[in-house]
Amino acid sequence: MANFEFEIRExxxxxxxxxxxxxxxxxxxxxxxxxxxxxxxxxxxxxxxxKIVFLAIVEGRAVGFAEIAQRSYADCxxxxxxxxxxxxxxxxxxxKSGIAKALIDTAAHWARxxxxxxxxxxxxxxxxxxxxxxxACGFAEVGRVVQYRMNLK
Length: 153
Known about the structure:
This protein is of the alpha+beta class. The chain has helices spanning about 15-25, 30-45, 100-115, 130-135; strands at about 5-10, 50-60, 60-70, 80-90, 120.
């Protein structure tokens, strides 16, 4: 475990570029243009789903994030809109330090305060480390899925 102090807090408007850069590390294929467009939509208050972004700050620099959206439904969450962990990331040098858990604890606290009955999430079927991280933070697996598509063009 690393020995440093960190703070978890809501993202400030002028920190969107740090958030966008980390999103690009998490969501491969996410372009600078995509990142700027989505960040500006969220910051304008016009994003219909994304509700809040929390950042992990070490020495004034964002090193992780958790973004929470509202979904009308998530698997095994049948009682109202659900707070959904759309993105969760900690830079590799800061993993196994408690930051990931602190981000989830902060997100869960916020979701409870907003009246959500559940905080839901997902992870790619092959992302074993992601599965372990979710479980270490108190998530319970509710199912697995293999998705399909058919190209029509």
